[in-house]
Amino acid sequence: MTTLALRMVQRNALVYRRVWRGSVFSNFLQPTLFLIAIGVGLGSMIDGGGAALPGGVGFLQFLGPGLLAAAAMQTASFESSYPILGKITWHRNYEAISATPMCVADIVLGELAWMAIRLTTVAVAFAAVLMAFGIPRSMLTLLAIPAAVLTGLAFSAPIMAWAATLKNSANFNVIFRFGITPLFLFSGVFFPVTRMPQWTQRAAWLTPLFHGVELVRGLTLGSLESPAWMIHVSYLAAMLAIGTLAALRTFRRRLLS
Amino acid sequence: MPLSTNGNPLIHARGLTKRFDQFTAVDGIDFDVHAGEAFGFLGPNGAGKTSTMRMIGCASPVTAGELEVLGMSPRTHASRIKARLGVVPQMDNLDSEITVRENLLMYARYFDISSDTAKRKAGELLEFVELSERGEAQVESLSGGMRRRLTIARALINDPDLILLDEPTTGLDPQARHVVWDRLYQLKRRGATLLLTTHYMDEAERLCDRLVVMDKAKIVAEGSPRALIEHYSTREVLELRFAGETSALANIVALLIGVAERVEELPDRIQLYTTDGERALQQVHALGLPLESAVVRRSTLEDVFLRITGRGLVE
Fold it and tell me: Which among B78, B93, B111 has the least Cβ separation from residue A92?
């Protein structure tokens, strides 16, 4: 990797400058609406219903950090699919960039670096909303921001790698319908996975969002336990590393034919 | 822009080959391109022109053979080669999400050109391609000809030693083509080295000092436009159309042999290849044939091209 990878970040920032206002607004609005409707609204019917949540926290406290991790996943998944394929096929940006001293690694690592910046803006806005709702119980909440970014990147790299192998965007629906949506619903964002049958609990341990949710929630509520957090971080870091290697391979194959 | 290369060619290819699985796109071609030259690849669609260009531009790995660009191998020095190339691809790949000027500024950043230099260069280049007034416009609002000019300006942002143009005027209307030709001609006069592919004969005749004709992945002829015409055609061509049934043309052809160096029968006309079209026409008149129309024209690269690659349609 050379400093040229930063040029990819610069290019994306130049484009983003035009849309950032609307984007920042929705970064705040989305979590606020979710927390009011589900956290406060639905939560008021759940709390006091007898079924205690881990650590004895209220439903709003439980839900908030879970949604933060899920938001990172959703942003990363979307931004790593259509826009990346667009730059390969429809707008041919990468073809133009490849004709300069920039190499494939500069492009891939630059895109991931930009993704990290985008995810940081989403996570910071989300964390601010969590604070406004008085959810955090620990100073470690600040670490929930990089944890959410890591969660997003763990999705971004493999999806980018996959996007570079596609001819058209039809397949993206498959991953959103059968991948992202079930993960969103069953990874412990809305209810503890311990509420599910034994085998689904084990399955949850194999899915990336579960680790992201546990990590972000643990940091926000100060309930993180020692061996568990290392597993969460390792899992997410491994997905990022493997996804990055795969993306370098698929991008090279696609852009240098 | 003239470049000192101690007489070494800017591009040196021997046995250059590109294969995609079973398909051979470029089949062992040899050529050299020298500094200050405008060198053309002429050929029908699918002849291997674009594949050759992509290998030179380090966008496609060489399957076999030797290739040196600016004295370096694309395999080991792609970034260093690309730093000194200007590439105008067949299909526009401008950044449609930023403005015309930003396209040049951002491209300069990919070459690590300082932003002061980039600003100055962008201004000069927009002037050169006559887009100064459109600097702040969105790329989407440009016509096809304007986009092409912007793509050419973008390819010049790094003061390239070698400019690769893949079908630079395909898809443009006649006015836009002439503007592009004019800009390329100016670059040539300044001493730039141009490498272009085209299937337009007039473009090749106008711009190229030297060219190779490619057909079915191989080089089938090489030389200056004039030398190729001399070698593969005659100075003039007399085109004759006759009244009556076209089936009678075969009989007429028999009578015309001897009038010209070569006689070619086409579905609607007969072409006589000769050094002196007017004299041949007088002889045709003397034969008393039912002539409907006759045109004497200069031989062009098109005659050469069709002679070499045949008249069959390439799909």
Answer: B93
For residue B102, the Cα-to-chain-centroid distance in whole angstroms is 29
> What pLDDT does B306 receive?
85
**Which residues, in sequence order, are CB contacts of B169 under 8 Å at separation 6+?**
B148, B176, B177, B180, B181, B198, B200, B203
Does A254 reach chain B within 8 Å, measured CB to CB?
no
Q: Is B258 helix (H, G, I), strand (E, B) or coil?
A: coil
> Which of B97, B115, B166 is the best substitution to test chain A (most A C-beta atoms within 10 A)?
B97
Domains in chain B with CATH codes: 11-224 (3.40.50.300), 234-298 (3.30.70.980)
Closest residue to A10, CB basis, from B83, B93, B109: B109
Mean pLDDT score, A138-164: 96
Give pLDDT, residue B9: 94
Residue B150's nearest CA partner among B123, B115, B125 is B125
Domains identified in chain A, total number: 1
In contact, B224 and B210? CB cutoff 8 Å: yes
Do residues A192 and A53 lie in contact, with contact meaning Cβ atoms separated by under 8 Å? yes
What pLDDT does residue B313 have?
55
d(CA A256, nearest CA chain B) in Å? 5
pLDDT above 60 (res B224): yes
Helix and strand counts by DSSP (H, E) for chain B: 11, 13
Interchain pair B59, A98: CB under 8 A:
yes
Over residues B141-197, the pLDDT tens digits come to 999 999 999 999 999 999 999 999 999 998 888 998 999 999 999 999 998 999 999
C-alpha B175/C-alpha B167 separation (Å) is 16
Instruction: Let me know: does B228 contact B279? Beta carbons within 8 Å.
Output: no
Q: Please, which residues 189-228 of chain B have a Cβ atom closer than 8 Å to chain A? A: none
Residue B214, pLDDT above cutoff 50: yes
Instruction: State the smallest CA–CA distance between residue A104 and chain B in angstroms.
Output: 11
- The reported pTM is 0.90
User: ipTM value of the model?
Assistant: 0.90
Q: Could you list the residue range(s) of the whole structural domain that residue A25 is in? A: 5-255
Structure confidence at residue B47 (pLDDT): 92
Quickly list DSSP for A47-75.
TTSS-PPGGG--HHHHHHHHHHHHHHHHH
CA angle B96, B99, B101 (to 5 degrees): 125
pLDDT band per the 50, 70, 90 thresholds, residue A207? confident
How far is Cα B280 from Cα B87, in angstroms, rounded to an integer?
47
CB of A99 within 8 A of CB of B78? no
